[in-house]
Amino acid sequence: MRLFIWALALAAGTASAQQEIKVSYQPALYWSLPYYIASEKGWWAELDLAPLYSTFPAGVPQIAASASKSWDVGGAGSVPAILGAARYQLLTIGITNDESVGNALMATRDKADGFMRNPASIKGQAIVLTANSTGDYAVQSCLRKWGLAKSDVSIKSMGQAEIISAMSSGNADLGGLWAPNIYTLEEKAGGKLICSGKDAGAVVPGALIVRAEFAKQEPQNVAKYLAIYIRAQQWAVAHRKEAIAVMRKFYDQGGVSISETSMNKEFDTRPVYDLAQQLKIMDRSGGQSEVDKWLTGIGEFMRANGTFPEAPAAKSFVTDEYMRMVDRDPKLKAFANKKD
Fold first, then answer.
1. Residue 153: phi, psi to the nearest 5?
2. Where are the beta strands (DSSP E) in 162-295?
3. CATH H superfamily, domain 4-98+205-336
4. Three-state SS for 116?
5. Which fold has domain 103-196?
6. What is the dihedral of CA 157, 167, 174, 25, to 10 degrees?
Protein backbone atom coordinates (compact mmCIF):
# COMPACT_ATOMS: atom_id res chain seq x y z
CA MET A 1 0.00 0.00 0.00
CA ARG A 2 1.18 3.44 -0.80
CA LEU A 3 2.54 5.58 2.01
CA PHE A 4 2.15 9.33 1.89
CA ILE A 5 4.64 11.31 3.98
CA TRP A 6 4.97 15.04 4.14
CA ALA A 7 6.00 17.78 6.54
CA LEU A 8 3.63 20.70 6.84
CA ALA A 9 5.06 24.18 6.56
CA LEU A 10 6.54 25.38 9.81
CA ALA A 11 4.82 28.20 11.62
CA ALA A 12 6.60 31.05 13.38
CA GLY A 13 9.97 30.14 14.81
CA THR A 14 13.10 28.64 13.36
CA ALA A 15 13.35 25.05 12.26
CA SER A 16 16.52 24.65 14.33
CA ALA A 17 14.56 25.42 17.49
CA GLN A 18 12.01 22.73 16.75
CA GLN A 19 12.34 19.00 17.17
CA GLU A 20 10.95 16.72 14.50
CA ILE A 21 8.28 14.29 15.65
CA LYS A 22 6.97 11.63 13.28
CA VAL A 23 3.17 11.39 13.49
CA SER A 24 1.10 8.61 11.91
CA TYR A 25 -2.62 8.48 11.29
CA GLN A 26 -5.34 7.52 8.83
CA PRO A 27 -6.62 10.43 6.72
CA ALA A 28 -10.13 11.86 6.53
CA LEU A 29 -11.28 10.54 9.90
CA TYR A 30 -12.89 12.48 12.75
CA TRP A 31 -10.21 11.51 15.26
CA SER A 32 -7.36 12.51 12.92
CA LEU A 33 -8.79 16.00 12.32
CA PRO A 34 -6.91 17.44 15.36
CA TYR A 35 -3.58 16.86 13.60
CA TYR A 36 -4.68 19.01 10.67
CA ILE A 37 -6.13 21.67 12.96
CA ALA A 38 -2.94 21.85 15.01
CA SER A 39 -0.88 22.35 11.87
CA GLU A 40 -3.25 24.98 10.48
CA LYS A 41 -3.14 26.85 13.79
CA GLY A 42 0.63 26.59 14.24
CA TRP A 43 0.29 24.86 17.61
CA TRP A 44 3.07 22.34 17.02
CA ALA A 45 5.55 25.17 16.66
CA GLU A 46 4.29 26.79 19.86
CA LEU A 47 5.65 23.78 21.74
CA ASP A 48 8.80 23.60 19.60
CA LEU A 49 7.79 20.54 17.61
CA ALA A 50 7.79 20.03 13.84
CA PRO A 51 5.51 17.16 12.70
CA LEU A 52 6.43 14.81 9.90
CA TYR A 53 3.20 13.07 8.94
CA SER A 54 2.73 9.60 7.50
CA THR A 55 -0.72 8.33 6.56
CA PHE A 56 -2.08 4.83 6.10
CA PRO A 57 -5.33 3.41 4.67
CA ALA A 58 -5.94 1.26 7.78
CA GLY A 59 -4.48 0.43 11.16
CA VAL A 60 -2.74 -2.90 10.43
CA PRO A 61 -0.19 -1.51 7.91
CA GLN A 62 0.17 1.54 10.12
CA ILE A 63 1.26 -0.36 13.20
CA ALA A 64 3.49 -2.66 11.12
CA ALA A 65 5.37 0.42 9.90
CA SER A 66 6.37 1.18 13.49
CA ALA A 67 8.86 -1.68 13.33
CA SER A 68 11.05 0.37 10.99
CA LYS A 69 10.68 3.46 13.22
CA SER A 70 8.97 5.32 10.37
CA TRP A 71 6.83 7.07 12.97
CA ASP A 72 7.02 7.95 16.67
CA VAL A 73 3.47 8.75 17.81
CA GLY A 74 0.03 8.58 16.28
CA GLY A 75 -3.58 7.56 16.48
CA ALA A 76 -5.28 4.32 15.47
CA GLY A 77 -8.26 2.16 16.17
CA SER A 78 -8.21 0.10 19.34
CA VAL A 79 -7.83 -3.21 17.48
CA PRO A 80 -4.59 -2.22 15.72
CA ALA A 81 -3.41 -0.52 18.93
CA ILE A 82 -3.67 -3.85 20.78
CA LEU A 83 -2.08 -5.71 17.87
CA GLY A 84 0.72 -3.15 17.98
CA ALA A 85 1.18 -3.78 21.69
CA ALA A 86 1.44 -7.52 21.13
CA ARG A 87 3.81 -7.39 18.16
CA TYR A 88 5.67 -4.08 18.24
CA GLN A 89 5.68 -2.86 21.86
CA LEU A 90 3.37 0.06 21.17
CA LEU A 91 1.91 1.88 24.16
CA THR A 92 -1.60 3.31 24.39
CA ILE A 93 -1.28 6.72 26.07
CA GLY A 94 -4.76 8.17 25.60
CA ILE A 95 -8.09 7.82 23.81
CA THR A 96 -8.93 9.69 20.60
CA ASN A 97 -12.72 9.31 20.87
CA ASP A 98 -15.54 6.89 21.55
CA GLU A 99 -16.39 5.58 18.09
CA SER A 100 -18.91 2.95 19.15
CA VAL A 101 -21.60 4.51 16.91
CA GLY A 102 -19.11 5.08 14.11
CA ASN A 103 -18.30 1.39 13.55
CA ALA A 104 -21.19 -0.56 12.16
CA LEU A 105 -22.73 -3.30 10.08
CA MET A 106 -24.28 -1.76 6.99
CA ALA A 107 -26.71 -3.23 4.47
CA THR A 108 -27.73 -2.23 0.97
CA ARG A 109 -30.92 -0.25 0.57
CA ASP A 110 -32.92 -3.17 -0.85
CA LYS A 111 -31.91 -5.68 1.81
CA ALA A 112 -31.60 -3.59 4.99
CA ASP A 113 -35.23 -3.68 6.13
CA GLY A 114 -35.45 -7.44 5.73
CA PHE A 115 -32.29 -8.03 7.75
CA MET A 116 -33.47 -5.67 10.48
CA ARG A 117 -36.88 -7.37 10.71
CA ASN A 118 -35.29 -10.80 10.80
CA PRO A 119 -31.61 -10.72 11.84
CA ALA A 120 -31.54 -14.53 11.76
CA SER A 121 -31.75 -14.24 7.97
CA ILE A 122 -28.15 -12.97 8.02
CA LYS A 123 -27.05 -16.55 8.70
CA GLY A 124 -25.34 -17.91 5.60
CA GLN A 125 -24.81 -14.44 4.13
CA ALA A 126 -21.48 -12.96 3.03
CA ILE A 127 -20.14 -9.92 4.90
CA VAL A 128 -17.33 -7.79 3.50
CA LEU A 129 -15.23 -6.03 6.13
CA THR A 130 -11.71 -4.97 6.99
CA ALA A 131 -10.29 -7.79 9.08
CA ASN A 132 -8.65 -7.06 12.44
CA SER A 133 -10.25 -3.65 12.65
CA THR A 134 -12.70 -1.86 14.89
CA GLY A 135 -15.26 -2.39 12.12
CA ASP A 136 -14.68 -6.15 12.40
CA TYR A 137 -15.16 -5.93 16.17
CA ALA A 138 -18.45 -4.04 15.78
CA VAL A 139 -19.76 -6.52 13.19
CA GLN A 140 -18.97 -9.54 15.34
CA SER A 141 -20.52 -7.84 18.37
CA CYS A 142 -23.69 -7.32 16.33
CA LEU A 143 -23.71 -10.96 15.26
CA ARG A 144 -23.46 -12.06 18.89
CA LYS A 145 -26.33 -9.75 19.80
CA TRP A 146 -28.48 -11.66 17.33
CA GLY A 147 -27.29 -15.08 18.51
CA LEU A 148 -25.07 -15.60 15.49
CA ALA A 149 -21.42 -16.62 15.36
CA LYS A 150 -18.69 -15.66 12.93
CA SER A 151 -18.91 -19.21 11.57
CA ASP A 152 -22.55 -18.58 10.63
CA VAL A 153 -21.54 -16.11 7.92
CA SER A 154 -18.93 -15.88 5.20
CA ILE A 155 -16.36 -13.15 5.87
CA LYS A 156 -14.37 -11.54 3.08
CA SER A 157 -11.72 -8.99 4.04
CA MET A 158 -11.15 -5.89 1.94
CA GLY A 159 -10.36 -2.21 2.33
CA GLN A 160 -13.02 0.36 3.14
CA ALA A 161 -13.08 1.88 -0.37
CA GLU A 162 -13.49 -1.62 -1.84
CA ILE A 163 -16.39 -2.33 0.53
CA ILE A 164 -18.18 0.82 -0.57
CA SER A 165 -17.61 -0.10 -4.21
CA ALA A 166 -18.82 -3.68 -3.73
CA MET A 167 -21.98 -2.62 -1.93
CA SER A 168 -22.71 0.25 -4.32
CA SER A 169 -22.42 -2.03 -7.35
CA GLY A 170 -24.61 -4.77 -5.88
CA ASN A 171 -21.74 -7.23 -5.38
CA ALA A 172 -22.25 -7.34 -1.62
CA ASP A 173 -25.30 -6.87 0.60
CA LEU A 174 -23.62 -6.56 4.00
CA GLY A 175 -20.48 -4.73 5.02
CA GLY A 176 -18.55 -3.51 8.03
CA LEU A 177 -17.71 0.17 7.77
CA TRP A 178 -16.49 2.96 9.99
CA ALA A 179 -17.29 6.65 9.75
CA PRO A 180 -17.09 8.64 7.53
CA ASN A 181 -17.33 5.68 5.14
CA ILE A 182 -20.70 4.91 6.70
CA TYR A 183 -22.01 8.29 5.52
CA THR A 184 -20.48 7.88 2.07
CA LEU A 185 -22.42 4.64 1.57
CA GLU A 186 -25.60 6.21 2.93
CA GLU A 187 -25.37 9.26 0.70
CA LYS A 188 -23.98 7.72 -2.48
CA ALA A 189 -25.79 4.38 -2.56
CA GLY A 190 -28.62 4.53 -0.03
CA GLY A 191 -26.96 2.08 2.34
CA LYS A 192 -28.46 1.69 5.81
CA LEU A 193 -26.90 1.14 9.20
CA ILE A 194 -28.51 -1.93 10.74
CA CYS A 195 -26.35 -2.27 13.87
CA SER A 196 -23.55 -0.21 15.41
CA GLY A 197 -21.04 -1.21 18.04
CA LYS A 198 -23.06 0.83 20.52
CA ASP A 199 -26.26 -1.01 19.56
CA ALA A 200 -24.47 -4.25 20.40
CA GLY A 201 -23.15 -2.97 23.73
CA ALA A 202 -19.54 -2.79 22.51
CA VAL A 203 -17.43 0.21 23.48
CA VAL A 204 -15.11 1.00 20.57
CA PRO A 205 -12.49 3.58 21.56
CA GLY A 206 -9.76 4.98 19.34
CA ALA A 207 -6.23 5.05 20.74
CA LEU A 208 -3.38 7.53 20.98
CA ILE A 209 -0.23 5.47 20.61
CA VAL A 210 3.55 5.76 20.83
CA ARG A 211 6.53 3.51 20.19
CA ALA A 212 7.84 2.42 23.59
CA GLU A 213 11.43 3.21 22.63
CA PHE A 214 10.55 6.75 21.57
CA ALA A 215 8.53 7.29 24.75
CA LYS A 216 11.54 6.29 26.84
CA GLN A 217 13.89 8.52 24.86
CA GLU A 218 11.64 11.58 24.45
CA PRO A 219 9.02 11.59 27.25
CA GLN A 220 8.63 15.37 27.22
CA ASN A 221 7.86 15.37 23.49
CA VAL A 222 5.27 12.65 24.02
CA ALA A 223 3.60 14.86 26.65
CA LYS A 224 3.73 17.82 24.25
CA TYR A 225 2.12 15.69 21.57
CA LEU A 226 -0.77 14.85 23.88
CA ALA A 227 -1.24 18.49 24.88
CA ILE A 228 -1.37 19.56 21.23
CA TYR A 229 -3.83 16.83 20.29
CA ILE A 230 -6.19 17.59 23.17
CA ARG A 231 -6.13 21.33 22.55
CA ALA A 232 -6.94 20.89 18.85
CA GLN A 233 -9.73 18.46 19.63
CA GLN A 234 -11.28 20.70 22.27
CA TRP A 235 -11.02 23.69 19.92
CA ALA A 236 -13.04 21.76 17.33
CA VAL A 237 -15.75 20.98 19.88
CA ALA A 238 -15.92 24.62 21.03
CA HIS A 239 -15.89 26.07 17.50
CA ARG A 240 -17.95 23.58 15.54
CA LYS A 241 -18.92 25.84 12.64
CA GLU A 242 -15.31 26.75 11.91
CA ALA A 243 -14.20 23.18 12.58
CA ILE A 244 -16.71 21.86 10.02
CA ALA A 245 -15.14 24.12 7.39
CA VAL A 246 -11.68 22.81 8.28
CA MET A 247 -13.01 19.24 8.30
CA ARG A 248 -14.35 19.67 4.78
CA LYS A 249 -10.87 20.63 3.53
CA PHE A 250 -9.24 17.80 5.45
CA TYR A 251 -11.71 15.19 4.20
CA ASP A 252 -11.43 16.48 0.63
CA GLN A 253 -7.67 15.97 0.80
CA GLY A 254 -8.30 12.37 1.86
CA GLY A 255 -10.74 11.79 -1.01
CA VAL A 256 -13.85 11.74 1.18
CA SER A 257 -16.86 13.85 0.29
CA ILE A 258 -19.82 13.86 2.69
CA SER A 259 -22.57 16.35 3.47
CA GLU A 260 -22.46 18.90 6.26
CA THR A 261 -25.25 16.92 7.93
CA SER A 262 -22.97 13.89 8.09
CA MET A 263 -20.09 16.01 9.34
CA ASN A 264 -22.29 17.17 12.18
CA LYS A 265 -23.08 13.52 12.92
CA GLU A 266 -19.37 13.00 13.49
CA PHE A 267 -19.45 15.56 16.28
CA ASP A 268 -22.80 14.43 17.67
CA THR A 269 -22.02 10.72 17.90
CA ARG A 270 -18.30 10.63 18.79
CA PRO A 271 -17.62 11.66 22.41
CA VAL A 272 -14.12 13.01 23.05
CA TYR A 273 -12.16 13.56 26.24
CA ASP A 274 -10.46 16.64 27.64
CA LEU A 275 -7.41 16.32 29.89
CA ALA A 276 -9.36 15.76 33.10
CA GLN A 277 -11.60 13.18 31.41
CA GLN A 278 -8.60 11.36 29.92
CA LEU A 279 -7.10 11.05 33.40
CA LYS A 280 -10.42 9.84 34.79
CA ILE A 281 -10.96 7.03 32.28
CA MET A 282 -7.34 5.88 32.72
CA ASP A 283 -7.41 6.00 36.54
CA ARG A 284 -6.52 2.67 38.21
CA SER A 285 -6.88 3.83 41.81
CA GLY A 286 -9.96 1.65 42.21
CA GLY A 287 -8.68 -1.31 40.19
CA GLN A 288 -9.05 -1.66 36.43
CA SER A 289 -9.54 1.65 34.63
CA GLU A 290 -12.33 2.19 32.13
CA VAL A 291 -9.77 2.04 29.33
CA ASP A 292 -8.43 -1.24 30.73
CA LYS A 293 -11.92 -2.73 30.62
CA TRP A 294 -12.63 -1.54 27.08
CA LEU A 295 -9.36 -2.83 25.67
CA THR A 296 -9.53 -6.10 27.58
CA GLY A 297 -12.86 -6.81 25.87
CA ILE A 298 -11.41 -6.02 22.46
CA GLY A 299 -8.31 -8.09 23.20
CA GLU A 300 -10.51 -11.07 23.96
CA PHE A 301 -12.31 -10.59 20.61
CA MET A 302 -8.92 -10.64 18.89
CA ARG A 303 -7.81 -13.77 20.75
CA ALA A 304 -11.04 -15.53 19.77
CA ASN A 305 -10.40 -14.38 16.22
CA GLY A 306 -7.07 -16.18 16.21
CA THR A 307 -5.00 -12.99 16.09
CA PHE A 308 -2.81 -14.22 18.92
CA PRO A 309 -2.93 -17.11 21.43
CA GLU A 310 -3.24 -14.71 24.36
CA ALA A 311 -4.15 -11.04 24.44
CA PRO A 312 -1.69 -8.69 26.13
CA ALA A 313 -2.88 -7.51 29.55
CA ALA A 314 -4.11 -3.93 29.35
CA LYS A 315 -1.85 -2.88 32.23
CA SER A 316 1.17 -3.97 30.19
CA PHE A 317 0.64 -1.41 27.43
CA VAL A 318 -1.92 1.18 28.61
CA THR A 319 -0.28 3.96 30.60
CA ASP A 320 -1.40 7.34 31.88
CA GLU A 321 2.22 8.36 32.60
CA TYR A 322 2.40 10.87 29.77
CA MET A 323 -1.08 12.26 30.35
CA ARG A 324 -0.07 12.84 33.98
CA MET A 325 3.06 14.62 32.75
CA VAL A 326 0.79 17.06 30.92
CA ASP A 327 -1.29 17.53 34.06
CA ARG A 328 1.75 18.18 36.26
CA ASP A 329 3.37 20.69 33.91
CA PRO A 330 1.63 24.10 34.34
CA LYS A 331 2.54 25.21 30.81
CA LEU A 332 1.39 22.01 29.10
CA LYS A 333 -1.75 21.77 31.23
CA ALA A 334 -2.75 25.33 30.37
CA PHE A 335 -1.98 24.66 26.70
CA ALA A 336 -4.08 21.46 26.63
CA ASN A 337 -7.00 23.19 28.32
CA LYS A 338 -7.15 26.09 25.86
CA LYS A 339 -10.12 26.14 23.52
CA ASP A 340 -8.93 28.95 21.26
1. -130, 170
2. 174-178, 192-196, 205-211
3. Periplasmic binding protein-like II (3.40.190.10)
4. helix
5. D-Maltodextrin-Binding Protein; domain 2 (3.40.190)
6. 50
CA dihedral sign of residues 288, 143, 191, 156 = positive
pLDDT greater than 80 at residue 3: no
Q: How confident is the model at residue 132 (pLDDT cuts 50, 70, 90)?
A: confident
- Radius of gyration, CA atoms only, the chain: 19
Domain layout of the chain by residue ranges? 4-98+205-336, 103-196
Q: Is the dihedral of CA 60, 63, 67, 68 positive or negative?
A: positive
β-pairing, 205-211 vs 90-98, is: antiparallel
What H or E segment, with its residue span, contains residue 221? helix 219-238
Taking Cα atoms as reference points, which of 203, 199, 219, 202 lies closest to residue 211?
A: 219
Q: Can 4-98+205-336 and 103-196 be said to share one CATH topology?
A: yes
Sheet containing 154-157: which strands, arranged edge to edge? 154-157, 126-129, 174-178, 103-107, 192-196
pLDDT tens, position by position, 209-249: 999 999 999 999 999 999 999 999 999 999 999 999 999 99
**DSSP 8-state symbol, 13:** S
Q: How far apart are CA 232 and CA 36, in angstroms?
A: 9
